[in-house]
Amino acid sequence: MRIAAAVLAVIVAASVLWYLGSPLFIRTYRSDALPEPSPAAASAQTSAQPDTTPPSPAGPRVIATGELQYVDAIHNGKGPVRIVDVAGQRLVRFEDVAITNAPDVHVYLSRETGGAWSEATSLYLGPLKATDGSFHYEVPATADPAMYGSVVIWCRAFHVLVTWADLRGA
Questions:
Q1: Could you give the CA distance from residue 71 to residue 100 in angstroms, rounded to a whole number?
Q2: Calpha distance 100→155 (Å, rounded)
Q3: For 20-70, what is each residue's pLDDT tens digit?
Q4: In this structure, are residues 167 and 83 in contact, taking their beta carbons and an 8 Å threshold?
Q5: For labeling, which of 2, 138, 145, 153 is most exposed (least CB within 10 Å)?
């Protein structure tokens, strides 16, 4: 009976250690292209403007930009983060980034800077899609990107900041 309990304890302990420690060694990669503006969206955007105004560019327009920051040896990120507008669709774009993995990692737009954030005043974008590569999150149409000062990547399991990028206007 004691041997069975000891084996069960070892299995449970190993499972917990794997859940907590494996993200530090596991890397995920994603290479998502920015969505292309549809011809209908580009023509609607152009036709809504007065005839005297030149049409806006059909490609992505950078609204804000920032760089992922170093927190400590275990929690850090590298690479640019941008808020871009693609034919009226606003996206938080991670471009060729490298982010330390952790369990239960999520992405927020924060009204604060320097890695500070509050769940009550931040906009939740979703779970981290990958630790390396290029990917994006859609910003809801009801949200004003100018209200946010940074992008925060947060580990919910340990309540710890993984990395952040302070945003500045383009």
A1: 10
A2: 11
A3: 666 666 889 999 999 887 665 445 454 455 544 444 556 799 999 999 999
A4: yes
A5: 2
- β-bridge mates for residue 85, sequence order: 61, 90
Both tokens assigned to 104: 């239960």
Contact 149, 132 (CB under 8 A): no
Domain of residue 106 covers: 2-169
Number of structural domains (the chain) is 1
Identify which of 21, 60, 67, 26 has the alpha carbon closest to the alpha carbon of residue 42: 60
Whichever domain contains 137, its CATH number is 2.60.40
Instruction: Give the DSSP H or E segment for 58.
Output: none
Closest among 131, 123, 83, 91 to 107, alpha carbons compared: 123
Contact 166, 113 (CB under 8 A): yes
3-state helix, strand and coil shares in percent for the chain, rounded to the nearest 5: 20, 40, 40
